[in-house]
Design a protein that fits this description.
Structural class: alpha/beta
CATH class of the largest domain: Alpha Beta
Number of strands: 14
Largest sheet: 6 strands, mixed
Strand order of the largest sheet: 6-7-8-3-9-10
CATH topology of the largest domain: Rossmann fold
Order of helices and strands: EEEHEEEHHHEHEHEEHEHEEHEH
Number of domains: 2
Helix content: 25-40%
Number of helices: 10
Radius of gyration: 24 Å
CATH superfamily of the largest domain: P-loop containing nucleotide triphosphate hydrolases
Strand content: 25-35%
Shape: elongated
């Protein structure tokens, strides 16, 4: 039995422009998967293809079945794709009740999700004048209404204040920990680095990376090792003999493309006392910019001052 979301050969053309170019990936239950890419990379279009909301090539299955094969799809996948996707004059509670009735979900769940997202005191208010952050919370409430196994959220942190962003991060991690799968796009790379287990990166409609956050960061050319010793000259000599490149930084040496074990053993063999030896991993932001260089829809030019 397939127990994952499986997207296969997703493709979308707008005239001659290829918006999504034959993308395939899996989303695993029990994990948060970040979906990254520059503006115009095709993230939103990909998510719409996964839900059957756009015509295009390829297919997406949820535990081995297409979404249209389920009698109650809202209990399979919860979505947040559009900003303020609600009737502005219908109260928050009534908005959710309409969705609950359509999905054959008990009305008791409505007040539960309002409390989860922190909108209990806004239940009788009309969301037409909600702030963007409050609107996002209502959208998340709608997404989790059916307690779905899969969540597909497009920029859910938009408009949230710092407290709301922390809440969202912890909520999504906890939701995945219950055996669910969360697929979330965001431009807040620091947040993705803190909440996501895996990450999928696209650029100009093409798949660039599909791996764990840990592997993505550790495999970056920007990752390095820092070593400090009272006998720095001797350490430099030992590194040169092994033809290991380094540069002097902050009273020590910075090396790339080598493991701490190798440097530690080399120093020990040479009788050099090491005072500090540590990995310096690249940030997700650094790796993202490295991977997507040249794939931005809008590129700026740095003019030299006259």
């Amino acid at each position: 039995m397939y127990t994952m979301l499986k997207a296969t050969n997703l493709t979308k053309h707008y005239g001659k422009k290829v918006a999504v170019d034959n993308i395939s990936f899996n989303i695993e239950p029990g994990k948060v998967t970040g979906f990254l890419g520059p503006n115009g990379a095709g993230k939103s279009t990909t998510m719409r293809l996964m839900l059957g909301l756009d015509n295009g090539g390829g297919s997406t299955t949820y535990d081995g079945k297409h979404l249209y094969d389920y009698d109650q799809p809202s209990k399979v996948v919860g979505i947040l794709l559009e900003l303020k996707a609600f009737h502005p004059t219908r109260t928050s509670r009534n908005h959710l009740k309409v969705l609950a009735d359509a999905g054959n979900i008990p009305n008791t769940r409505v007040d539960e999700v309002l409390e989860i997202v922190g909108l209990s005191d806004q239940a009788k208010k009309r969301p037409g004048k909600f702030s963007l952050g409050m609107s996002q919370r209502l959208g998340i409430a709608a997404a989790i209404l059916g307690q779905p196994k899969y969540l597909l959220l497009d920029e859910p942190a938009n408009g949230l204040d710092p407290e709301g962003i922390v809440w969202l991060r912890e909520f999504l991690k906890a939701y995945a920990d219950k055996g669910n799968a969360v697929f979330v796009s965001s431009h807040l790379l620091s947040e993705i680095s803190q909440m996501a287990d895996n990450v999928i990166v696209i650029g100009k409609g093409k798949l660039i990376a599909n791996t764990s956050v840990k592997q993505l960061v550790s495999g970056s050319v920007r990752s390095s090792i820092f070593v400090r010793s009272a006998k720095l000259d001797q350490l430099e000599k030992a590194l040169k003999e092994r033809k290991l490149a380094y540069e002097k930084v902050d009273g020590g040496l910075k090396l790339s493309g080598v493991k701490t074990d190798e440097v530690g053993k080399l120093a020990f063999k040479a009788g050099i006392t090491v005072l500090e030896l540590a990995n310096h991993s690249a940030s997700l932001e650094e790796v993202f910019l490295e991977l997507t260089a040249g794939s931005e829809e809008f590129q700026t030019r740095q003019d030299k001052p006259s």
